[in-house]
Structures are given as structure tokens and as C-alpha cells.
Amino acid sequence: MSAPRPHHLGDMTTAEAAEAVTASPVVLIPAGAFEQHGPGLPLATDLIRAERVCDLVAAGLAGRAVIGPSLPVGVSPHHRAFAGTVSIRPATLAALVAEYAADLHRHGWRKLLVVTGHAGNNATLGTVAQELLGSLPELEFAWTPLTALAGDVVAGLGVSEVHGHSGEAETAQLLHLAPHLVRADRLTAGSTAFHQLTPLARLTRGGHPALALPYERLTPNGVLGDPTRVTPDDGAAVVDAIVSRLVAFVDAWLAA
Amino acid sequence: MSAPRPHHLGDMTTAEAAEAVTASPVVLIPAGAFEQHGPGLPLATDLIRAERVCDLVAAGLAGRAVIGPSLPVGVSPHHRAFAGTVSIRPATLAALVAEYAADLHRHGWRKLLVVTGHAGNNATLGTVAQELLGSLPELEFAWTPLTALAGDVVAGLGVSEVHGHSGEAETAQLLHLAPHLVRADRLTAGSTAFHQLTPLARLTRGGHPALALPYERLTPNGVLGDPTRVTPDDGAAVVDAIVSRLVAFVDAWLAA
Amino acid sequence: MSAPRPHHLGDMTTAEAAEAVTASPVVLIPAGAFEQHGPGLPLATDLIRAERVCDLVAAGLAGRAVIGPSLPVGVSPHHRAFAGTVSIRPATLAALVAEYAADLHRHGWRKLLVVTGHAGNNATLGTVAQELLGSLPELEFAWTPLTALAGDVVAGLGVSEVHGHSGEAETAQLLHLAPHLVRADRLTAGSTAFHQLTPLARLTRGGHPALALPYERLTPNGVLGDPTRVTPDDGAAVVDAIVSRLVAFVDAWLAA
Amino acid sequence: MSAPRPHHLGDMTTAEAAEAVTASPVVLIPAGAFEQHGPGLPLATDLIRAERVCDLVAAGLAGRAVIGPSLPVGVSPHHRAFAGTVSIRPATLAALVAEYAADLHRHGWRKLLVVTGHAGNNATLGTVAQELLGSLPELEFAWTPLTALAGDVVAGLGVSEVHGHSGEAETAQLLHLAPHLVRADRLTAGSTAFHQLTPLARLTRGGHPALALPYERLTPNGVLGDPTRVTPDDGAAVVDAIVSRLVAFVDAWLAA
Amino acid sequence: MSAPRPHHLGDMTTAEAAEAVTASPVVLIPAGAFEQHGPGLPLATDLIRAERVCDLVAAGLAGRAVIGPSLPVGVSPHHRAFAGTVSIRPATLAALVAEYAADLHRHGWRKLLVVTGHAGNNATLGTVAQELLGSLPELEFAWTPLTALAGDVVAGLGVSEVHGHSGEAETAQLLHLAPHLVRADRLTAGSTAFHQLTPLARLTRGGHPALALPYERLTPNGVLGDPTRVTPDDGAAVVDAIVSRLVAFVDAWLAA
Amino acid sequence: MSAPRPHHLGDMTTAEAAEAVTASPVVLIPAGAFEQHGPGLPLATDLIRAERVCDLVAAGLAGRAVIGPSLPVGVSPHHRAFAGTVSIRPATLAALVAEYAADLHRHGWRKLLVVTGHAGNNATLGTVAQELLGSLPELEFAWTPLTALAGDVVAGLGVSEVHGHSGEAETAQLLHLAPHLVRADRLTAGSTAFHQLTPLARLTRGGHPALALPYERLTPNGVLGDPTRVTPDDGAAVVDAIVSRLVAFVDAWLAA
Question: Do E14 and D43 touch (CB under 8 A)?
């Protein structure tokens, strides 16, 4: 086999980690979910995307960031009706992130960026950021979703009127990042048009007020949008935009 | 003195509350904050706006909603350096909302809308929504910030390049809703332009990645934007948009 | 409209709050409940009384105390069978009070007095006081119920053999403090005599051992005592005694 | 050695415990503290009194009550400055009592009486009672302090103007119940008169508002009152009153 | 009655406790359980053994150790189907031990040894040890089960193929330490041979993987092994080995 | 790239997961740690071993088990002085495992085996097993460390007098399972003989009483034993023994 993966803290020895504190002052934490992704995508889709993006961002940063331990399971109660979904409580995810942060801070890191492939983790990450202002005031804690960073590229794909979970953008990313895990022949459109949604479900699609519904009330097969319409090249475009944005952010952060 | 305030559950007797469960199937919960609002606005600004908006929404709904107990303090660790700010932990706010929800649900209500005047509560409300999917699956739980509902109106006010907390939109709302609490003569612009921000502070203004900084690192006087540029009429326009949007949402919700 | 309410921290700006730390070294926190109060009193009775008493105490102290954020909901599981009651857990109320205290302490206040209109909050406040001895040893934390401060005046009203919740003393206070919220025509006596109670219910009336029963096992209409026997003047006498006692306490506290 | 102690659940086998559920429908739980008791009394004074009183009450009930596991440590943060004091948090004591209660309830008991020798446990027991109303509605949960049950007898002892912790009443009880643990030659008066207290300390002696101070600010030797003035006979009178009151309470409870 | 028990912190005054911090630098904490012990042993068996062993160890150490407050109830969910068992949650036991430790540490002790008669407490004690490394780094925290310290002596007793809870070793100890609590005529063998166990139950007897089953699925009468085969002398041999091992451990600890 | 990894739930779609509930009734959860492993092994050593062993066990079971989401970080406070170590609290790990278990149980699985490469997780897993007896009584929850399953093989390697963390057995496993991650040229013996340990450190090596010390007090380089003495073949022997034992356990479990 080959050498340890560069930029991966887990592959380093403790002595290498000690050097990384100064050489690589940013730690990236990939956060995923373990949840249904429709007929064609695997349960770990969000973790896979987050880990691959972190690899690409770390490579783009040429050693100025290391990748810390993953958060393989996220907050997914809205997918629990679908087999295989494992969800943790917001408080548990918050504790995990805060404890990762505390120990990385103890070793000397001051910049931490959690990259979540699952938007269901956003709210919890927002609360962690608030808590860390008090508990670790010298730590700069940032977090980001993935697809939202490439909104313009996604819009350019020609997405369905209703799209989102396991739809065009997410499927495209996986076709690019982990094509061997996509069951291309089973990809199937889910709810794609507003009129397919119940009146109650429509209320969940308007931003604010935010109304939470379990996914089985939004789409029978767990998909919002049409995953059959996208190609690996679409995914490459989305991923490139995400990675560029994140590299630029960290560049600016390190220069600030 | 006059009669009990209509639509206010707290002003009702238990017998009236029992009737309200069927007559008024939506409960509005105003959520605020107790935090600095610059030289000219009071600490309770966010609660005041939330409570007044709930009054207007309930009036607009003509009895189909009642207003439940307030959440007067929110999650404001980023304002703690400014005197008077009182902040509670996300877990405490989450427990409060979940316990309000559980008892309202016990009495028969199935639709609950938390109206928060403070965006710092958004993340916590998002986690509560996730938790309630599991603990009270028959409850429909919605929440909303205020100003974000009137984004187009705010944009039309001609806001500063940098604007937000205690700035144009918020000051306008208070000039309309509670003018006696605005120290008009002390209103002062805070950070209004990107170039006034430190490089690190600029990173907090771009959406994602989200980077949390305490407010004293963003603006010396606690204000983002220029509160001197707005009028009560501006506030009326913003509030009208918010109230209309919320009444329409509840109308659709009740019809769904 | 008129000016901000004097003594109300929530109506102040952050600069005014900074001055209040030295000018007004005591913070009063009104604590209420959101619970049934029989056929004639509103759910928010306890909060209303606590807030009005705090206003009067602050006025009596002529600027030496400010009123902080309210605690609108208390610990009321014994009233849950009656519509409209919202109760929070002791641990949640304790967290709230401790977090209010921590931030007020952070800004420099060292004397905090929680004024609770609801005796169901007493036990929790007692535990908070114990916890604060360890976590904030320089803070002087005091708390008080209302009616218990005027025991002699209440006794002089000629109360029923069994009296208490929503009975003579509480109704009198509300008739004085918020008459527009009393449904005078619906006030109805509840359990007023020992012989009306079940043998088990009688055991709850003797002080110690303390036995907790839900209120529907004590009184069909949620009232203990006869609220029809009292007048606004009775309430004025009770409230005056409470306010005098509290002003005297704070006077002595500030002089100690 | 002799036989197992009658009435002690811990001395019974599981088969005997199964019989006790119906034969002895009340469970007594002795609760103590592990805290300074001045120069002459042992740290475990409160547990010893609670356990001995439970023995006497169980004997007086002739088999209708059993004694469950003790709570040897209580909530004593106000005594922490004195060597040997061990205090647990209110939340920890509350969890312990609630978990004892849940398992005793699981086996079929429906009446539980916690007998606390330490008044510092009262507030926590009050919160437990509230929580159990919701979690175990069929359980009848009662709790009681000791000395407060014999207020008239204590008053008749001719106590000091200031009296209480490790003072006349408590010392007398221990002289009667566990004379071998009293260092009679070291018993020393503590603060006995109001004028000996600082102005701040005086505020703690008036009931309400309740102000918590650590004990070293009330009395240099940890004693309130004069333990040298009492005799074992005084203690017998106090204990008899306590036991009679408790036996009568349980008699009434079983008959209710 | 006689004098206070030597070595028992609870029997000491605060002044004596202050001296013990230096004279007796080790604190022993007896931990038990309140759980079924088959037809012949009492529910408190584990606490009794732990307390008696602590007495003997403290005596053997001649004043270099004191005995702190007991932990009378442990983690026993696997015995809950048997009447009388009271179990607390691991988190509750952990909080208790950590809070005992924090206060003993506050007074100056730096060596704490928890002696648990119940192996069901082992896992929790292991987690407490881990937590204390971070929260009280100067504290040396040790814990030990009892019977496991005398494995060679137990093997020499000629135990059943399947043995353990309430079996040979435990019964022998109680026959020696508290014979008045053993119902010798009711002692009955439980599951003693592998072939008596269900295939699933056999999987619990092999160390690792560890599989947890409730005890009613292992043995109808709650006993593993044959308690009728042992004598008080067997118990003396087991106890002597345990005490010797513990005295030697503390000797080495104090010399380290 | 190739197909999804067989037996990995994360690589499956929700439909495949639904089939796996019946086809593969055992879920394996790999648990690791993120902690120093001396000069030659990577921080993620324990996770890597756990994941590889789960792969081999699942393969050995030919479809009767699936591999669920990993637990990449464990309880490692004793390694915190060494750079790179990230540790979570026992309560956080316990919550994670319990929440994984609850959702897997919700989908229908009844047999869950956590395979931990890090012995520091053992105590927490023991407490989780106890909690699950109450919360999910139909779930059969098992857990296992790795190296302890191959004690005889390890003994046969000719290990140092003092050996353990990052020593012979662990290094051999990694040389076999992930040789590309071993810095063979940097492997260095740590503490290998009893006389090298301080008297206090020696007390940690005797089983019981268990005394916890941070690792920097046991070994300067974080290693116990001599990792230079072992070969990949040694590792293969250890791993084969572990895998065989686990396959046999699951076989027996499924047959029980």
C-alpha cells in the first residue's frame, strides 16, 4: 500500500500532529449523516461528499489545513421512517463537536471549520458556534454546508421546481465523487413539482416560517427533484465551485 | 381599565383557554432577546417587536390564533461584552420551547408558531423542530424570524452596505411599533461599509461558511448599519410586510 | 406614547444599563406561572402580580433597583389537568435563573432578588440559591414569594378554613393590581372547608410531611377558598404589606 | 449476632421484599447530610437522626412500613468551608430520589415518605415531588424534615434568640439518639443573639425574602444556638413529638 | 454506648476531619447495591460486604485511611425483575462519586479508593476515573471490586462450573461478615452448570464479547452457583485475601 | 471504481437496508479512538483496527452481519498530553451508542455488536449495556475489545514485562492490517520493564484496585512495550484469532 493520506490528522503520528499545529493552522472536520437517500444513493452520501470535499480543499490549501476526525452520523429525524437511517440528537452532535473543538484547541489550533454534507446539521452547528464564543473565546469556529456554496451552479443545472434531498445537486456530486456508490439504474425522480405536494408540504418549501415535516410526508421515495437528469460533469461543476469557495475562504481567513 | 387583551392566552381563564383550543387552533409564541441594541434602542427590542407583531398577526387572523407565553430572553452570547445583555444557553431555550410545546399539545393544540425577533434564536429553534418530530409527531411546529420575512422591503429602504443588528430595518420597526422606546437623538451609525470591518470581520458577512465573532469585533457601538436613515413609515412598511406574510402563512396552514 | 418605564432594564439602552450597575445595585426578577386560576382569574395571574409588585418596589426604592427580564412560566405540574396551564421543569427554571444571574453578575451586579408570584417556584429557587453559593460566591442571591410576606394581613381578611390558590388573598391582589383581568361575575368559591376534602387531600394541608397531589384532587374548579369575599381594598392592604416588606428588605440589604 | 433488623428492606431477601409490598405499603427513606455540625457533633448527624427516627416510626407502625435505602449525603454547599463536608448537587440528589422512587414503584409500592434530617434537602425534595406528579402519577410521594415537626416542643426548650444548625434542638436529638457520638465536653455555643450577626447575616434569619449565605458568614464555629443548654431528656421530648407526628401521618395516609 | 467508630469520617467532628486530612491521607468509599441476592441473602449484601471490608482495611492501616460516606445503591438494572431491587443510572452514580471526590479533594485529600461490593458498578467507576483525570488532575482516584481480588482463594473453594452472583464466594463472605443476615436454611443452588443455561445465556459467561442479559434469563432464583457448599471459614479466607490485598495496595500507594 | 463495499450499511441504499434487517440480523459497529500511539503509529490506529476487523468478521459471516456507522473518536483523557489526541466524554460516547442502537432497533435489528479497538471505551460500553437493558429490553447488545480476544496469541509473541498501548500486540496488528500507516523506522520501545516505572505507575499495572494515571506518567514516548519486536505475521496471527473468536461468537448468537 501507499503512504499515509496527506493532510489527514488520523494518519499522522503524535509527533507529526505536533508539527501540524503550526504548519497547518486550520482543522477541517467532515460531518455527514446516515440517512436514506432515495432509491439510488447510499445512506452515507453526506459523509462521503463531506470527506471528499475536505480532501480536495486540503489539497487546494497545500498543507495549510489538516483533516480531523469525522462526524459520520448527523441529525436526521425527518428521515427515520426510511430503513437504515440513524440519527443522533442535536445535543449529542453538539457535545461531539464541542469536545473535538476543546481538544484541538488544547493542542494549539485556533481555526476550526466543520464541513457538513447534511443540512440537517446546520442548526446544531449554529448553536455550537454560539456556545464556543463563551467556552473557548480564542477559538475561531466556522462551519459550512456544501451545496449551498454552489447555489448559482446548481441553478444553472436546470433543476426541478421542487428539488433538494437526493435530487439533482446531490446526485451530481456523488456521480462525480463516488460513482461506484450510485445505483444509476435505480435513480428515480421523487416529488418534482409543487402541485405534487400536499398543501401542508408546500408550506415547508418557502423558507420562513420554517415548518418541519418528516420526509415521508413530502415524497414517497425520499427524493426531492429528479436525480436522473444530471451527469458526473454536472457534479464536477458543483464540487469545483464548492471547493473553490472553501479554499478562498480559508485563504482569506489565514490572511486575516 | 379595559378588558383583557383579545387573543392573549395569559389573559384568559382556564375555561376560556379550553374553548380556545378549538376556536383558535394556532398558538403564537413571541420570542425575544435581552441584549444591547446600540446607543438608541432598548435591550428588549427583539421581544417588543415579536410581541407587537404577534398582536398584529393575531388581530389579522381574527381569533384563529392565540398568543401564548413569551420567551423574553434568547441566545445572545455575541453581545455579552455590552452592558445589560442577558443570554441563555441554546439548551435552555430549547428546553423552554419544548416544554411550552408539550403542554400546549397536551391541551389539544396541534399548530405552534414561534415568532422570534432575534435571529440568534434561529439555530436553537431549528434544533427544537427536529426534536419535536420525534417526541410529539402530531404537533406541527413552525418558527420564523421577523426581518427576514420582509427582505424585499428592507432592500428597498436603501440600506448601508453593511447593515443588520440595530441598523436600518430594526430601528425602523421600533420607530413604528414602540417609538417611545427609541432614543432618536442618540441613534448613531455603526459599521456601515465593508472597508470599516477588519479582514476577519468581513468573513462573517458572507453567509457560508459561517464564522461567529463577538459583536465588539464587528462594531464599536454595537450597530451594523445606519439607524438614523429610517423613519416610522419605513418601519410600517417592514412590519406590514411581515404581518401580511405571517397571516398568509397561517391562513394556508389552517386550510392545509 | 410616553417615555420608557423607569427602573425597567429592558427599556434601557446598553449605555443606561452600564450606569445602572452602580446607580441601581439591586436587580429584581419577576417570576410567574402560566396556570389555571379558577373560573375568574387569568392564567398569567402570578406573573402579573409579580411584575406589578416589582414596579411598586422599584418605585419605592427610588432608583436603587432595576427590574430585569421576567420569568413568565413556572413549575406548575399540579395544574396540568386544567386547560391552558403551561409548566416547565424545575431543572429548566433553575437553568434560566442561574443564567440570568451569571450574566447580570458578569456586568457587575451583586444583589439579585427574584420575586415569584407562584409558590410552585419556591423549591426550584431554593435549589438555585444553593447552586449559586458555589458557582458565583460573590453574588448575593435572594428570592421571595408574595403572599407569604403578608400573612398577617391575609389572616385579617377572614379567609376560609381552606384557602390558597385563586382564593381570597390572590383574588384580592388581582382586584387591586389588574381589575380589568378579573371576571368578577364568574368568581366562584372552591373547596373552602376541611370536610369538603377527601381524607387524602386533607393530608396536603398540614405543612409537613408534605404530600403533593394534582389540583383536580383538591378542588373541582381549581380554587381553594372563596374569592367572592374580597374587595380591591383588601388587595391594596395585602399588596401594601408585601411592597413595604420588600422595600424594607432591600433597604436593609443595601445598608448591610 | 441477632436477626435481621425488622422493617429494613435492605436486610430482607427478595422473597421477603415481595411480601412487604402488600404487607408494608409505605416505604420510608432516610435522608441525611455529610456536613460540619460544630465542635461537638459528628458529620453524619443528620443521617443518624433520620435513620433512627425511621426505625422508631417503623416500629410504631408495627410492620405497615419498611425502610428503604438511605440517602447518606445531601445538599450542603453552605457548609463547604468546614472540613469534612461533602455535598452533592440538587440535581444529583433529585435523580437519586426519583430513581429510588421509580424502582420501588415498579415493584408495586405506591406510598413513599422521605424523612430528611437535613433541611438543606428540602428544596430538592420539593422539586422531586413536582417531577413525580408527571412521571409517576399513581405514586403518592411525601417528604418531611425532622425538627420542624416538633416546633412547639423545641420552643418549649427555651432556645436562644438565634438558634438552628447544631444548636439546641439538633444536639438534644443526638444526645438522645446517639449519645456516644456527641463530644459533650466540646459542645460550644455559636451565634446565639441577633446582635452577634452582621447586618447581612441578620437578613438570612427572617424567613422571606430568603437570602443564602455560607455558614462561615453566620457563625465562626458552625453553630447557631447553644448546644450546651440541652439534655438527653430534651432530645427525647423532641424525638417523641417527631415520631408521633409521623406515625399519625402514616396512619391517616393508610386510612385515606 | 461506646465511642465513635474509629476511621469513620461520618462519626468525626469537623475539627477531627481537618486533622484526618493529613493524618489519614486515604479515603475509602464503600459502594454497594440494593438488589436481589437469591433466596438466602439480603438485598443490601453488597453494601454490607463493602462496609465491613472497609472497616477491616482501615483497621489494618492503623489510622492512615478514613472511611467516607457510603454509596448504598448501585447500578443493577439486570436484577430489576426481582422484588426489592433498586437501581440507579450509571450517570447518577457517576455524579455522586465525582461530587464526593470533588469535596474530599477540596478539603485536601488526594487519594480516594472506592471499594465496591457490586461488580455492576465497575463500568461506571471506570468512567468516573476517566472524567477525574480531566477535572481533578491532582487527585489519585482508585477503585476496586471485592471478590475479584481473591480469585485464587475462590477457585480453591471448589466452585460450581457456573458461579457468581449470590453463589459460593459471595455467600461465604456474608456468612463470615454478617451471619445474622444469612437465611442459611433457605440458601438454594441456582444455575450451576453450563448445560442448564440457554444457548443465549451461555454467551454471557465467556468474558468477551460481553453480552448483557437480565438475570431472570440466567437463573430462575437469581443465584449463579451453589451457596450451600460454603462455610464461614471459606468466607474468612476470601475476606482475608481481599483485605490483605487492599492493605498492601494502600501501603504501596502511600509509599509511592 | 468498483462496487459498494459488501456488508457496509453506509454503502447501501435505504431499500437494501430494509432487506438487510432480515438477511443480516447482526449489526457491527466499529469504535475507535483518536489518540497518540507513540512515535510510529497513527492517531487513528484503534479505529483502523476496529474497521478492518469488522470487515473481516462480516466477510467471515458471509452476509449475516452488516457494518453500521463508525464511532471514530473515543474516551482518551489519559492521552491528552500528547499532541493530536481528541477525546470525548463517556457521557457523549454513551449517548452516541445508545442513539445508534435506538434507531437500528427501530428499523428492526435486535442484535448489535460494538467492536472497539480502544480499551478506554470499555467502561462506557459497559454502562451503555446496562442502560439498554431498561430502555430497549428486546435488543441484545454486545460489545468487545480486540486484543483481549487473542490473549493467548499475544502471550505467545514473547511480549515485554510491561506491554500494552502501542506495544507489541497493537503494532503487530497494524503491520498486518495497515502497513502503509506504520512508520517502521520510527517505532521505538517505551516503558518495557517494571523497574522503569515509578512506584506510583507500577500500581496501575496490577488489575485491581484500578488506578488511573495520565500516560505521560507511565511512559515518556507514549508506548508500553517494544513495538520493534513484532512482524506482520505476528499481527496476522493476532488478527486471525480475534476474527475467529468473533465469527464464532456471532455464529453461536444467531443459533441461540
Answer: yes
